[in-house]
């Protein structure tokens, strides 16, 4: 192994080392604070590697791991999200007087799997990373917590995710087998030359293979009609796990999906584009319509995430007819914006919750502005950004998507995007109205809200600042994304 390869692998080595240390410490000493500190420190160190180590790019570090600006950007985003979730998890699980240390081992192994996904350029690394992430999430979602509500919901959510995710993995594996049987290629780069050389463009078995892979990925991303598990799992999982599932898991799968579709030239299959178009339109419309009916904030954000994934599909579909640079840039910006918005929103829910009781009903947020202006201010900023209001990251992200749609002449999908955004505006504003409304019976100051730890405040402040910064001055981020888009 050369020095260049070792330098590029430092972040994965650091994550692996942190996982082993946390596992050993948890095995010998049951101390929640110590394990959380080690996990947070290890994730912070992995993140700092990006700032102080100059990687050699692009580089095929191993047969399965490929490093370029694109993979490093998503790796950094994934580790950043895991760091925020680790900080939020401490106060949430601290009041859970049981064994909390295993949660952080699962968090680290899931993050390691997500980073492998972001650096994948091969079917095997895609599957290994996906399973490392998925198997860790099964246990994280079902992680035992106490409380009248929390005692039963995590296990139910974990079983639902286990069944649906297992089915998705089977579909992806079967699809990979069909593609490999026909092309003899497993590297993403080798798929397009093999398809053209063998004259497989119209082959129904090859199309079936790609559709099976797409179906499995759609389960992971909770796209309609593969979305049915999402609201139940979001509601039942502990809040920090829901935050992780909504951000890190989705970002990792989207990163590898875009690379696979672009490098394999899968867009030459017209049937694949039709399926993607139907799923995008259905996700945008159904996700927003079902969100209107929700009285639970976590379920509302679950259906909102389905709609936002539909928006992202517009960019992926547009990549079939416009230069890859714009599509990759648009998708990366929107993922980063949605990533930050979701973390901030779930950080507010986490600050209002603990392992025994979660304030996740919309009625619980009535009058929140008068009880805690800081938390309500963060939530209002997040909701404005999710709705695409100007001067927020969400507005720039939707502008990028609209630009990609116009460049690709996707007029039907743009119409669905406008209709979906208009519907979404209603349920976001409804929650804002409730928070600003004075509740007659609500206390002017909730003592529980005064006990929010410094770490949670730091996550809230940093995410809110990023949402506003990316909305007011997005150029630094855009320049970074333009350089990573050149990888394609």
Features of the shown structure:
single chain, 488 residues, two-stranded antiparallel ribbon, globular
Question: What would your notes on this structure say?
Answer:
The protein is mainly α. It has one domain (about 5-485). The protein has 20 helices and 2 strands. A two-stranded antiparallel sheet has the order 1-2. A hairpin with a 5-residue loop joins strand 1 and strand 2 (about 65). Helix 2 runs antiparallel to helix 5. The longest helix has about 30 residues, at about 155-185. The chain is globular, with a radius of gyration of 22 Å.
Helical/strand content category: mainly alpha
Structurally, how many domains make up the residues? 1
**How much helical structure, as a percent, in the residues?**
over 70%
Number of strands: 2
Helix-strand pattern:
HHHEEHHHHHHHHHHHHHHHHH
Unreliable stretches: none
Shape: globular
What share of the residues does DSSP label as strand, in percent?
A: under 5%
Radius of gyration: 22 Å
Placed side by side, the strands forming the largest sheet appear as 1-2
What is the mean predicted local confidence, pLDDT?
87
Q: Count every helix, treating DSSP H or I runs of 4 or more residues as helices.
A: 20
Largest sheet: 2 strands, antiparallel
Quote the distance from N terminus to C terminus. Answer: 26 Å
């Amino acid at each position: 192994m050369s020095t260049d390869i070792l330098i590029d692998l430092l972040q994965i080595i650091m994550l692996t080392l942190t996982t082993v240390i946390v596992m050993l410490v948890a095995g010998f000493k049951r101390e929640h604070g110590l394990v959380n500190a080690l996990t947070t420190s290890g994730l912070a160190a992995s993140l700092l590697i990006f700032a102080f180590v100059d990687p050699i790019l692009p580089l095929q570090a191993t047969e399965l791991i490929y490093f370029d600006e694109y993979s490093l950007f998503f790796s950094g985003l994934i580790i950043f999200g895991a760091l925020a979730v680790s900080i939020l998890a401490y106060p949430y699980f601290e009041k859970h007087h049981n064994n909390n240390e295993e949660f952080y081992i699962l968090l680290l192994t899931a993050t390691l799997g997500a980073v492998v996904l972001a650096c994948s350029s091969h079917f095997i690394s895609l599957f290994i990373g996906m399973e490392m992430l998925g198997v860790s999430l099964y246990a994280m979602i079902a992680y035992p917590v106490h409380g009248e509500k929390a005692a039963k919901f995590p296990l139910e959510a974990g079983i639902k995710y286990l069944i649906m995710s297992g089915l998705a993995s089977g579909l992806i594996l079967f699809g990979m087998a069909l593609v490999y049987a026909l092309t003899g290629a497993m590297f993403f780069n080798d798929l397009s030359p093999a398809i053209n050389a063998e004259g497989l463009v119209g082959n129904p078995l090859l199309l079936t293979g790609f559709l099976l892979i797409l179906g499995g990925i759609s389960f992971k991303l909770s796209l309609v009609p593969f979305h049915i598990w999402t609201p139940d799992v979001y509601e039942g999982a502990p809040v920090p796990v829901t935050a992780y599932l909504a951000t890190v898991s989705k970002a990792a799968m989207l990163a590898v999906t875009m690379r696979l579709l672009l490098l394999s030239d899968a867009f030459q299959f017209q049937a694949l584009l039709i399926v993607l178009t139907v799923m995008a339109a259905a996700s945008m419309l159904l996700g927003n319509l079902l969100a209107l009916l929700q009285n639970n904030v976590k379920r509302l954000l679950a259906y909102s995430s389905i709609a936002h994934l539909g928006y992202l599909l517009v960019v992926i579909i547009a990549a079939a007819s416009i230069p890859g640079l714009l599509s990759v840039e648009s998708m990366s910006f929107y993922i980063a914006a949605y990533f930050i918005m979701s973390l901030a929103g779930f950080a507010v829910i986490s600050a209002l919750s603990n392992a025994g009781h979660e304030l996740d009903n919309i009625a619980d947020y009535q009058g929140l502005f008068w009880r805690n202006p800081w938390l309500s201010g963060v939530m209002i900023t997040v909701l404005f950004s999710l709705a695409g209001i100007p001067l927020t990251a969400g507005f720039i992200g939707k502008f990028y998507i609209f630009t990609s749609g116009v460049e690709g002449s996707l007029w039907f999908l743009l119409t669905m995007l406008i209709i979906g955004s208009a519907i979404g505006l209603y349920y976001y504003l409804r929650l804002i109205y409730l928070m600003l409304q004075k509740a007659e019976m609500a206390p002017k100051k909730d003592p529980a809200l005064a006990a929010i730890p410094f770490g949670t405040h730091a996550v809230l402040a940093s995410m809110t600042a990023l949402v506003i910064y990316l909305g007011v001055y997005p150029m630094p981020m855009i320049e970074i994304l333009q350089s990573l888009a050149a990888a394609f």
